[in-house]
Amino acid sequence: MGEPFPGAVLDVLGRAGDRVVLEHGERAVGAAELLDLVARVAAGLRRRGIGPGDGVALLLGVTPEAFAAILAAHVVGARVVGVRPGLPEAHVRRLLDLDVAVVVVDSPARQGVQLAELCAAEPEPGPPRLGGRPDDVARLIHTSGSTGAPKAVAQSYRAMAAAWTAVPSRWPPAIAELASRLGRYLVFGTLASQVMFEYAVLSITAGGVVVVAEDPSLPGAITRHRASASVITVPRLAKLVAAHLASPADLSTLRALLVSGSPLSASRHREALEALGPVVFHGYGQTETSTIAMAVPDDPPGSVGRPLVPLEVRDERGRVVPSGAGGELFVRSPAQAGGYWGDASESAEVFVDGWVRTRDLGHLDQDGVLWLTGRSRDVVIVNANLHHVGPIERVIAEHPDVAEAYVVAVPDEETGEAVHAFVVPSGEHEPDPAQLRELVIGRLGPACAPTRVTLIREPPLAPSGKPDKRLLPPP
């Protein structure tokens, strides 16, 4: 292993000197100023006893200081837990219980160490001392687990140092093409997002500027900030296309929209290319693996382009299938996660002999282009966030008027996918859909609440006699 993470990122910033790398409102932050913030926050953490292997939770907005705090926590070798906004409070508390030594916040309403205090610390002399140990966990990125509680994906310092993001010589062709268009990369929402943060690093490495959008509504944010690129979900892309067709906006600066979070249908993909021009990049990846494949604007609409990492398509017996045949996707990358924090059984199921079992289905065509065809896991992806349906079914079934509940994912123009619950009443009283929604919101958050409830007398059965949700009537 060479230099520990985030050494490559700090090297990029060091070479950039006073070049502006981040804009926040009227504020333009140069690379040297950002490096100074990193050094100050790292010194502040060390003076609070934080070092290699210690857990640091970050409850932060999207600011230059927040970006610096992420890098600084890695400088001291901490295990970083980013908490995205909008999570139910119970989930936040659970994340903060992941052996966290300090919580860094930027809001007086939250308990913890205020980021402003860390930014005021006196930096240590000389270049930053990198404390990351290769086999220590560098970050925990949470997803929705099969129990309904956040599941923490653990990535080591060795894996993060092996990533291509800040090292142009490692960029695959599709990433090099995207990087050339990241002159002004628009970020919003949260830097706890793996995609938002990593492509911000890619943008800076490529000589671009990370532009913070306080109001991320499109197309306004693109025109207002003269943005050249941003990450976008499938529903937001559909809205942007519709708005642009109804009232064309000045999108002359736009060169790349990275569609992420859920599959993009061929018709939506083609429509976006026709309306916006050759700016659509369709990324496919997972928290466990980072980016797996990426379609550039010249790739076939509906595909996710060529794999960026070793990929195998396997049948139900685990055998690799020939080109063109479908199966489950297994991938391998030096930067992949090592497992799930505190969950050995789930880790053993997904991380198999150096490969990551994606539980997604697809095939490679004769040109080596990857096409996704479905998934083998029972989940719904709402606003690019994955939620297992089992916990939703169990919560709905707790209602006294519900005997059984079966949840499926359905397409949704607003959120990509939404929850559709098929419910078997327990007696004469029909369950109130509004009550079911409130029950789920209180336990699992609004993203898991059913947007539609359908009453059924009994579930359809497979030949084995077990309920088969694939046979439920279409929405």
How would you summarize the topology of this molecule?
Blueprint: H1 7-16, E1 20-24, E2 27-30, H2 31-47, E3 55-59, H3 64-75, E4 79-82, H4 89-96, E5 100-105, E6 113-114, H5 115-119, E7 137-144, E8 150-156, H6 157-162, H7 173-179, E9 184-187, H8 194-205, E10 209-212, H9 220-225, E11 229-232, H10 234-246, E12 256-259, H11 266-276, E13 280-286, E14 290-295, E15 306-307, E16 311-314, E17 327-331, E18 339-340, H12 344-350, E19 351-352, E20 355-364, E21 370-375, E22 379-382, E23 385-388, H13 389-397, E24 402-412, E25 416-425, H14 433-444, E26 450-455
Parallel strand pairs: 1-10, 3-4, 3-5, 4-7, 5-6, 9-10, 9-11, 11-12, 12-13, 25-26
Antiparallel strand pairs: 1-2, 7-8, 8-18, 13-14, 14-15, 16-17, 17-20, 19-20, 20-21, 22-23, 24-25
Helix pairs in contact: 1-2, 2-3, 10-11, 13-14
Q: Which terms would index this structure?
A:
475 residues, alpha/beta, Rossmann fold, GMP Synthetase, Chain A, domain 3, nine-stranded mixed beta sheet, seven-stranded mixed beta sheet, 29% strand, globular
Describe the structure in your own words:
- The longest helix has 17 residues, at 31-47.
- The protein has helices at 7-16, 31-47, 64-75, 89-96, 115-119, 157-162, 173-179, 194-205, 220-225, 234-246, 266-276, 344-350, 389-397, 433-444; strands at residues 20-24, 27-30, 55-59, 79-82, 100-105, 113-114, 137-144, 150-156, 184-187, 209-212, 229-232, 256-259, 280-286, 290-295, 306-307, 311-314, 327-331, 339-340, 351-352, 355-364, 370-375, 379-382, 385-388, 402-412, 416-425, 450-455.
- The mean pLDDT is 91.
- It folds into three domains: 7-162, Rossmann fold, CATH 3.40.50; 184-375, ANL, N-terminal domain (Rossmann fold, 3-Layer(aba) Sandwich); 379-471, GMP Synthetase, Chain A, domain 3 (2-Layer Sandwich).
- It is α/β, with parallel strands linked by helices and 475 residues long.
- The protein contains 14 helices and 26 strands.
- Helix 1 (7-16) packs across helix 2 (31-47), helix 2 (31-47) packs across helix 3 (64-75) and helix 10 packs across helix 11 (266-276).
- The chain has a nine-stranded mixed sheet.
- Helices cover 28% and strands 29% of the residues.
